[in-house]
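Pasting as-is:
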Amino acid sequence: MNRNPISLLELTNRISCLVQQPETQNVWITAELQDVASRGGHCYMELLQKDDGGRQLARIRGCCWANVFGPLSRRFLEATGQPFASGLKVMLRVSASLHSVFGLSLVIHEANPEYTMGDLVRRRNEILRKLQDEGILEDNRSLKWPTVVQRVAVISAPGAAGYGDFMNQLANNPSRIKFTTKLFPAVMQGASAPRSIIAALERVAEEQGAWDGVVIIRGGGATSDLQAFEDYDLAASVAQFPLPVAIGIGHERDVTVLDWVTNIRLKTPTAVAEWLIGKGEAVLGALMAAGNRIVQFATQRIAGDKEQLAQAEALLPVAARGAVERSKAAMTRAVASLYGLSAVKIEPSRSRLDMAVNTISNATRDLLRRHAERLDASAQLLEVLSPAATLARGYSITRIDGHAVTSVKDVPLGALLEITLADGSFLAHTP
Protein backbone atom coordinates (compact mmCIF):
# COMPACT_ATOMS: atom_id res chain seq x y z
CA MET A 1 0.00 0.00 0.00
CA ASN A 2 1.33 3.41 -1.01
CA ARG A 3 1.77 5.45 2.18
CA ASN A 4 2.78 8.65 0.38
CA PRO A 5 -0.43 10.70 0.40
CA ILE A 6 -1.24 13.56 -1.98
CA SER A 7 -3.14 16.69 -1.12
CA LEU A 8 -6.86 17.03 -1.65
CA LEU A 9 -6.19 19.83 -4.10
CA GLU A 10 -3.92 17.59 -6.18
CA LEU A 11 -6.57 14.87 -6.21
CA THR A 12 -9.28 17.29 -7.30
CA ASN A 13 -6.94 18.58 -10.01
CA ARG A 14 -6.40 15.02 -11.25
CA ILE A 15 -10.18 14.42 -11.24
CA SER A 16 -10.67 17.73 -13.04
CA CYS A 17 -8.33 16.57 -15.78
CA LEU A 18 -10.31 13.36 -16.08
CA VAL A 19 -13.58 15.27 -16.16
CA GLN A 20 -12.47 17.76 -18.76
CA GLN A 21 -12.31 15.30 -21.64
CA PRO A 22 -13.75 15.96 -25.11
CA GLU A 23 -16.65 13.68 -24.26
CA THR A 24 -17.78 16.02 -21.44
CA GLN A 25 -17.16 19.36 -23.17
CA ASN A 26 -19.69 21.29 -25.28
CA VAL A 27 -22.30 18.54 -24.94
CA TRP A 28 -26.00 19.14 -25.59
CA ILE A 29 -28.22 17.78 -22.80
CA THR A 30 -31.87 18.00 -21.76
CA ALA A 31 -32.77 18.61 -18.13
CA GLU A 32 -35.32 20.29 -15.89
CA LEU A 33 -34.37 23.50 -14.10
CA GLN A 34 -34.81 23.84 -10.37
CA ASP A 35 -33.91 26.50 -7.78
CA VAL A 36 -32.73 28.94 -10.45
CA ALA A 37 -31.18 32.01 -8.81
CA SER A 38 -29.25 34.98 -10.11
CA ARG A 39 -26.43 36.55 -8.09
CA GLY A 40 -24.06 39.20 -9.32
CA GLY A 41 -25.19 38.65 -12.90
CA HIS A 42 -24.31 34.95 -12.76
CA CYS A 43 -27.03 32.29 -12.73
CA TYR A 44 -26.94 29.21 -10.50
CA MET A 45 -29.34 26.28 -10.58
CA GLU A 46 -29.90 22.57 -10.12
CA LEU A 47 -30.28 20.39 -13.23
CA LEU A 48 -32.59 17.40 -12.79
CA GLN A 49 -33.74 14.31 -14.62
CA LYS A 50 -36.86 12.51 -13.36
CA ASP A 51 -38.81 9.45 -14.34
CA ASP A 52 -42.51 9.51 -15.15
CA GLY A 53 -43.35 9.13 -11.48
CA GLY A 54 -41.35 12.22 -10.52
CA ARG A 55 -38.49 10.29 -8.93
CA GLN A 56 -35.09 11.87 -9.45
CA LEU A 57 -32.73 9.88 -11.65
CA ALA A 58 -29.89 12.42 -11.83
CA ARG A 59 -29.02 15.78 -10.26
CA ILE A 60 -26.07 18.13 -10.73
CA ARG A 61 -25.29 21.73 -10.06
CA GLY A 62 -25.27 24.10 -13.03
CA CYS A 63 -23.98 27.62 -13.53
CA CYS A 64 -24.04 30.21 -16.26
CA TRP A 65 -21.55 33.07 -16.08
CA ALA A 66 -22.72 36.65 -16.44
CA ASN A 67 -21.19 37.24 -19.90
CA VAL A 68 -23.24 34.29 -21.22
CA PHE A 69 -26.37 34.48 -19.06
CA GLY A 70 -27.41 38.01 -20.05
CA PRO A 71 -27.75 37.34 -23.80
CA LEU A 72 -28.94 33.77 -23.19
CA SER A 73 -31.84 34.80 -20.92
CA ARG A 74 -32.96 37.55 -23.31
CA ARG A 75 -33.02 35.22 -26.31
CA PHE A 76 -34.78 32.54 -24.27
CA LEU A 77 -37.53 34.95 -23.14
CA GLU A 78 -38.06 36.30 -26.65
CA ALA A 79 -38.31 32.83 -28.16
CA THR A 80 -40.44 31.06 -25.53
CA GLY A 81 -42.30 33.86 -23.78
CA GLN A 82 -40.99 32.42 -20.50
CA PRO A 83 -38.13 33.58 -18.29
CA PHE A 84 -35.26 31.19 -17.74
CA ALA A 85 -36.67 29.85 -14.49
CA SER A 86 -37.40 26.82 -12.35
CA GLY A 87 -39.82 24.23 -13.67
CA LEU A 88 -38.74 24.43 -17.30
CA LYS A 89 -37.33 21.55 -19.25
CA VAL A 90 -34.53 22.92 -21.41
CA MET A 91 -31.88 21.89 -23.89
CA LEU A 92 -28.43 23.22 -22.95
CA ARG A 93 -24.89 23.08 -24.31
CA VAL A 94 -22.70 22.42 -21.28
CA SER A 95 -19.17 21.50 -20.23
CA ALA A 96 -18.33 19.50 -17.14
CA SER A 97 -16.10 21.27 -14.63
CA LEU A 98 -14.69 20.26 -11.25
CA HIS A 99 -13.67 23.08 -8.93
CA SER A 100 -11.45 22.28 -5.99
CA VAL A 101 -13.76 24.20 -3.62
CA PHE A 102 -17.20 24.26 -5.26
CA GLY A 103 -17.13 20.73 -6.60
CA LEU A 104 -18.57 19.27 -9.78
CA SER A 105 -20.86 21.38 -11.92
CA LEU A 106 -21.93 21.92 -15.51
CA VAL A 107 -21.03 25.26 -17.05
CA ILE A 108 -23.75 26.41 -19.45
CA HIS A 109 -22.67 27.95 -22.75
CA GLU A 110 -25.89 28.06 -24.73
CA ALA A 111 -29.61 27.24 -24.55
CA ASN A 112 -31.68 26.03 -27.49
CA PRO A 113 -34.84 28.25 -27.41
CA GLU A 114 -36.52 26.05 -30.03
CA TYR A 115 -36.68 23.25 -27.52
CA THR A 116 -40.13 23.69 -26.06
CA MET A 117 -40.85 24.41 -22.48
CA GLY A 118 -40.74 21.61 -19.93
CA ASP A 119 -43.53 19.22 -19.10
CA LEU A 120 -44.77 21.51 -16.34
CA VAL A 121 -45.30 24.51 -18.60
CA ARG A 122 -46.67 22.43 -21.47
CA ARG A 123 -49.16 20.83 -19.15
CA ARG A 124 -50.12 24.27 -17.85
CA ASN A 125 -50.84 25.53 -21.36
CA GLU A 126 -52.85 22.40 -22.12
CA ILE A 127 -54.91 22.90 -18.95
CA LEU A 128 -55.52 26.58 -19.77
CA ARG A 129 -56.59 25.71 -23.31
CA LYS A 130 -58.99 23.08 -21.97
CA LEU A 131 -60.50 25.51 -19.47
CA GLN A 132 -60.83 28.10 -22.22
CA ASP A 133 -62.54 25.60 -24.54
CA GLU A 134 -64.96 24.68 -21.73
CA GLY A 135 -65.80 28.36 -21.26
CA ILE A 136 -64.95 28.47 -17.53
CA LEU A 137 -61.51 30.11 -17.54
CA GLU A 138 -62.87 33.57 -16.67
CA ASP A 139 -65.78 32.55 -14.41
CA ASN A 140 -64.21 33.19 -11.01
CA ARG A 141 -62.23 36.17 -12.27
CA SER A 142 -65.51 37.85 -13.29
CA LEU A 143 -67.03 37.67 -9.77
CA LYS A 144 -67.19 40.87 -7.69
CA TRP A 145 -66.00 41.07 -4.10
CA PRO A 146 -68.32 42.83 -1.64
CA THR A 147 -67.42 46.43 -0.89
CA VAL A 148 -66.64 45.40 2.68
CA VAL A 149 -64.93 41.99 3.02
CA GLN A 150 -64.96 40.80 6.62
CA ARG A 151 -66.07 37.13 6.47
CA VAL A 152 -63.23 35.08 5.02
CA ALA A 153 -62.98 31.32 4.51
CA VAL A 154 -59.30 30.29 4.68
CA ILE A 155 -57.88 27.18 3.01
CA SER A 156 -54.40 26.40 4.30
CA ALA A 157 -52.35 23.86 6.22
CA PRO A 158 -52.92 24.09 10.00
CA GLY A 159 -49.82 25.29 11.80
CA ALA A 160 -48.16 26.50 8.59
CA ALA A 161 -46.05 29.65 8.89
CA GLY A 162 -47.93 31.26 6.01
CA TYR A 163 -51.28 30.74 7.74
CA GLY A 164 -49.87 32.15 10.98
CA ASP A 165 -48.53 35.23 9.19
CA PHE A 166 -51.89 35.77 7.50
CA MET A 167 -53.88 35.56 10.75
CA ASN A 168 -51.41 37.75 12.63
CA GLN A 169 -51.61 40.41 9.92
CA LEU A 170 -55.43 40.44 10.04
CA ALA A 171 -55.63 40.44 13.85
CA ASN A 172 -53.16 43.28 14.31
CA ASN A 173 -54.23 45.59 11.50
CA PRO A 174 -53.71 49.25 12.50
CA SER A 175 -57.29 50.22 11.62
CA ARG A 176 -58.71 47.62 14.05
CA ILE A 177 -60.97 46.19 11.37
CA LYS A 178 -62.83 43.13 12.62
CA PHE A 179 -62.50 40.01 10.44
CA THR A 180 -64.35 36.73 10.88
CA THR A 181 -62.32 33.78 9.60
CA LYS A 182 -62.57 30.01 9.60
CA LEU A 183 -59.82 27.58 8.63
CA PHE A 184 -60.76 24.79 6.23
CA PRO A 185 -57.65 22.57 6.58
CA ALA A 186 -55.97 21.13 3.50
CA VAL A 187 -52.66 19.62 2.42
CA MET A 188 -50.81 22.32 0.52
CA GLN A 189 -48.03 20.36 -1.21
CA GLY A 190 -47.39 16.92 -2.58
CA ALA A 191 -49.48 14.57 -4.71
CA SER A 192 -52.47 14.65 -2.34
CA ALA A 193 -52.71 18.45 -2.24
CA PRO A 194 -55.10 18.99 -5.23
CA ARG A 195 -57.70 16.54 -3.94
CA SER A 196 -57.36 17.92 -0.39
CA ILE A 197 -57.86 21.53 -1.53
CA ILE A 198 -60.85 20.54 -3.68
CA ALA A 199 -62.42 18.85 -0.64
CA ALA A 200 -61.86 22.03 1.39
CA LEU A 201 -63.55 24.08 -1.35
CA GLU A 202 -66.52 21.71 -1.26
CA ARG A 203 -66.83 22.24 2.51
CA VAL A 204 -66.78 26.02 2.00
CA ALA A 205 -69.45 25.74 -0.70
CA GLU A 206 -71.77 23.97 1.76
CA GLU A 207 -71.89 27.14 3.85
CA GLN A 208 -71.13 29.74 1.17
CA GLY A 209 -73.80 32.11 2.51
CA ALA A 210 -71.64 32.67 5.60
CA TRP A 211 -68.62 33.96 3.64
CA ASP A 212 -67.72 36.95 1.47
CA GLY A 213 -64.89 35.10 -0.26
CA VAL A 214 -62.17 32.45 -0.04
CA VAL A 215 -58.41 32.70 0.32
CA ILE A 216 -55.99 29.86 -0.51
CA ILE A 217 -52.62 30.48 1.12
CA ARG A 218 -49.28 28.79 1.76
CA GLY A 219 -45.83 30.04 2.56
CA GLY A 220 -42.91 30.19 0.18
CA GLY A 221 -40.69 27.26 -0.71
CA ALA A 222 -39.01 25.56 -3.62
CA THR A 223 -40.66 25.96 -6.99
CA SER A 224 -41.06 22.21 -7.23
CA ASP A 225 -43.40 22.38 -4.21
CA LEU A 226 -45.89 24.35 -6.33
CA GLN A 227 -46.50 21.47 -8.75
CA ALA A 228 -49.61 20.59 -6.74
CA PHE A 229 -51.23 23.74 -8.13
CA GLU A 230 -50.60 22.69 -11.75
CA ASP A 231 -53.67 20.43 -11.69
CA TYR A 232 -56.68 20.53 -14.01
CA ASP A 233 -59.29 19.34 -11.48
CA LEU A 234 -58.15 21.92 -8.92
CA ALA A 235 -58.07 24.71 -11.51
CA ALA A 236 -61.58 23.79 -12.75
CA SER A 237 -62.92 23.75 -9.17
CA VAL A 238 -61.49 27.22 -8.46
CA ALA A 239 -62.63 28.60 -11.82
CA GLN A 240 -66.24 27.52 -11.18
CA PHE A 241 -66.37 28.32 -7.47
CA PRO A 242 -69.40 30.52 -6.61
CA LEU A 243 -67.43 32.85 -4.30
CA PRO A 244 -64.46 35.00 -5.39
CA VAL A 245 -61.13 33.33 -4.59
CA ALA A 246 -57.84 35.04 -3.71
CA ILE A 247 -54.57 33.10 -3.56
CA GLY A 248 -51.17 33.69 -2.04
CA ILE A 249 -49.22 30.50 -2.57
CA GLY A 250 -45.68 31.52 -3.41
CA HIS A 251 -43.42 34.35 -4.43
CA GLU A 252 -43.81 36.90 -7.18
CA ARG A 253 -41.73 34.88 -9.59
CA ASP A 254 -43.84 31.73 -9.11
CA VAL A 255 -46.79 31.35 -11.51
CA THR A 256 -49.16 28.37 -11.62
CA VAL A 257 -52.36 27.44 -13.43
CA LEU A 258 -54.29 28.67 -10.40
CA ASP A 259 -52.95 32.19 -11.00
CA TRP A 260 -54.81 32.24 -14.34
CA VAL A 261 -58.22 31.19 -13.01
CA THR A 262 -58.46 32.75 -9.56
CA ASN A 263 -60.16 36.10 -8.93
CA ILE A 264 -57.20 37.77 -7.18
CA ARG A 265 -53.60 36.59 -7.35
CA LEU A 266 -51.21 37.89 -4.68
CA LYS A 267 -47.69 36.76 -4.01
CA THR A 268 -47.79 35.73 -0.32
CA PRO A 269 -50.29 35.11 2.53
CA THR A 270 -49.21 38.41 4.07
CA ALA A 271 -49.98 40.19 0.80
CA VAL A 272 -53.47 38.63 0.81
CA ALA A 273 -54.05 39.91 4.35
CA GLU A 274 -52.81 43.38 3.36
CA TRP A 275 -55.19 43.38 0.38
CA LEU A 276 -58.17 42.51 2.62
CA ILE A 277 -57.17 45.18 5.13
CA GLY A 278 -56.73 47.69 2.29
CA LYS A 279 -60.30 47.08 1.08
CA GLY A 280 -61.61 47.69 4.60
CA GLU A 281 -59.48 50.80 5.04
CA ALA A 282 -60.75 52.17 1.73
CA VAL A 283 -64.34 51.88 2.99
CA LEU A 284 -63.38 53.38 6.35
CA GLY A 285 -61.62 56.22 4.54
CA ALA A 286 -64.71 56.91 2.45
CA LEU A 287 -66.90 56.86 5.58
CA MET A 288 -64.50 59.15 7.43
CA ALA A 289 -64.44 61.56 4.49
CA ALA A 290 -68.24 61.56 4.35
CA GLY A 291 -68.40 62.10 8.11
CA ASN A 292 -65.95 64.99 7.90
CA ARG A 293 -68.00 66.57 5.12
CA ILE A 294 -71.15 66.22 7.23
CA VAL A 295 -69.44 67.75 10.27
CA GLN A 296 -68.04 70.59 8.16
CA PHE A 297 -71.43 71.30 6.59
CA ALA A 298 -73.20 71.13 9.96
CA THR A 299 -70.61 73.42 11.57
CA GLN A 300 -70.96 75.98 8.77
CA ARG A 301 -74.75 75.75 8.91
CA ILE A 302 -74.83 76.19 12.70
CA ALA A 303 -72.44 79.14 12.51
CA GLY A 304 -74.60 80.78 9.86
CA ASP A 305 -77.78 80.13 11.84
CA LYS A 306 -76.20 81.57 14.98
CA GLU A 307 -75.27 84.73 13.09
CA GLN A 308 -78.78 85.06 11.70
CA LEU A 309 -80.23 84.44 15.18
CA ALA A 310 -78.02 87.14 16.69
CA GLN A 311 -79.13 89.59 14.02
CA ALA A 312 -82.76 88.64 14.60
CA GLU A 313 -82.37 89.11 18.37
CA ALA A 314 -80.96 92.59 17.79
CA LEU A 315 -83.68 93.55 15.33
CA LEU A 316 -86.62 91.97 17.17
CA PRO A 317 -87.38 94.82 19.65
CA VAL A 318 -87.08 97.47 16.95
CA ALA A 319 -89.07 95.39 14.51
CA ALA A 320 -91.81 94.76 17.08
CA ARG A 321 -92.18 98.44 17.93
CA GLY A 322 -92.20 99.34 14.28
CA ALA A 323 -94.81 96.70 13.52
CA VAL A 324 -97.04 97.93 16.36
CA GLU A 325 -96.77 101.55 15.23
CA ARG A 326 -97.49 100.58 11.63
CA SER A 327 -100.50 98.56 12.74
CA LYS A 328 -101.85 101.48 14.82
CA ALA A 329 -101.50 103.85 11.88
CA ALA A 330 -103.21 101.36 9.60
CA MET A 331 -106.10 100.98 12.07
CA THR A 332 -106.50 104.77 12.33
CA ARG A 333 -106.63 105.05 8.59
CA ALA A 334 -109.14 102.19 8.42
CA VAL A 335 -111.45 103.88 10.99
CA ALA A 336 -111.32 107.15 9.08
CA SER A 337 -112.07 105.32 5.86
CA LEU A 338 -115.04 103.56 7.46
CA TYR A 339 -116.52 106.88 8.59
CA GLY A 340 -116.13 108.27 5.11
CA LEU A 341 -117.70 105.17 3.59
CA SER A 342 -120.67 105.47 5.98
CA ALA A 343 -121.50 108.90 4.69
CA VAL A 344 -120.84 108.13 1.05
CA LYS A 345 -122.05 104.54 0.70
CA ILE A 346 -124.29 103.56 3.60
CA GLU A 347 -126.78 106.50 3.66
CA PRO A 348 -127.69 106.35 -0.06
CA SER A 349 -128.04 102.60 0.25
CA ARG A 350 -130.32 103.01 3.26
CA SER A 351 -132.57 105.40 1.33
CA ARG A 352 -132.76 103.03 -1.58
CA LEU A 353 -133.59 100.21 0.83
CA ASP A 354 -136.54 102.20 2.35
CA MET A 355 -137.85 102.90 -1.13
CA ALA A 356 -137.52 99.26 -2.05
CA VAL A 357 -139.48 98.23 1.07
CA ASN A 358 -142.39 100.53 0.17
CA THR A 359 -142.34 99.36 -3.44
CA ILE A 360 -142.35 95.71 -2.43
CA SER A 361 -145.21 96.28 0.06
CA ASN A 362 -147.43 97.97 -2.55
CA ALA A 363 -146.60 95.42 -5.21
CA THR A 364 -147.43 92.60 -2.80
CA ARG A 365 -150.86 94.06 -1.93
CA ASP A 366 -151.68 94.54 -5.61
CA LEU A 367 -150.60 91.01 -6.46
CA LEU A 368 -152.66 89.48 -3.63
CA ARG A 369 -155.73 91.49 -4.66
CA ARG A 370 -155.51 90.35 -8.29
CA HIS A 371 -155.11 86.73 -7.25
CA ALA A 372 -158.14 87.01 -4.91
CA GLU A 373 -160.25 88.38 -7.76
CA ARG A 374 -159.16 85.51 -10.02
CA LEU A 375 -160.04 82.97 -7.33
CA ASP A 376 -163.53 84.48 -6.89
CA ALA A 377 -164.16 84.33 -10.63
CA SER A 378 -162.95 80.74 -10.80
CA ALA A 379 -165.19 79.74 -7.89
CA GLN A 380 -168.22 81.28 -9.62
CA LEU A 381 -167.37 79.47 -12.86
CA LEU A 382 -166.93 76.18 -11.06
CA GLU A 383 -170.27 76.63 -9.38
CA VAL A 384 -171.97 77.24 -12.72
CA LEU A 385 -170.23 74.30 -14.38
CA SER A 386 -170.63 71.85 -11.47
CA PRO A 387 -172.72 68.64 -12.02
CA ALA A 388 -175.22 69.74 -9.41
CA ALA A 389 -175.94 73.01 -11.28
CA THR A 390 -176.20 71.09 -14.51
CA LEU A 391 -178.72 68.66 -13.00
CA ALA A 392 -180.68 71.57 -11.57
CA ARG A 393 -181.12 72.92 -15.08
CA GLY A 394 -183.01 69.70 -16.06
CA TYR A 395 -180.19 67.46 -17.12
CA SER A 396 -179.61 63.89 -15.90
CA ILE A 397 -176.65 61.48 -15.72
CA THR A 398 -177.08 57.92 -17.00
CA ARG A 399 -174.66 55.23 -15.83
CA ILE A 400 -174.17 51.57 -16.64
CA ASP A 401 -172.14 49.66 -14.08
CA GLY A 402 -170.95 52.96 -12.61
CA HIS A 403 -169.75 54.38 -15.95
CA ALA A 404 -171.41 57.44 -17.48
CA VAL A 405 -173.11 56.84 -20.82
CA THR A 406 -172.32 59.42 -23.48
CA SER A 407 -173.72 57.74 -26.60
CA VAL A 408 -176.77 55.64 -27.51
CA LYS A 409 -174.39 53.16 -29.09
CA ASP A 410 -173.03 52.42 -25.63
CA VAL A 411 -176.44 51.21 -24.30
CA PRO A 412 -177.08 47.52 -25.04
CA LEU A 413 -180.57 45.98 -25.05
CA GLY A 414 -181.83 44.95 -21.62
CA ALA A 415 -179.16 46.92 -19.77
CA LEU A 416 -179.79 48.16 -16.23
CA LEU A 417 -179.49 51.90 -16.21
CA GLU A 418 -178.85 54.16 -13.19
CA ILE A 419 -180.34 57.59 -13.86
CA THR A 420 -179.40 60.50 -11.61
CA LEU A 421 -181.52 63.70 -11.44
CA ALA A 422 -181.17 66.83 -9.32
CA ASP A 423 -183.18 65.45 -6.47
CA GLY A 424 -182.30 61.72 -6.60
CA SER A 425 -181.58 58.56 -8.63
CA PHE A 426 -183.59 55.58 -9.98
CA LEU A 427 -182.98 52.38 -11.98
CA ALA A 428 -184.52 51.51 -15.34
CA HIS A 429 -184.18 48.72 -17.95
CA THR A 430 -183.82 49.29 -21.64
CA PRO A 431 -186.43 47.58 -23.85
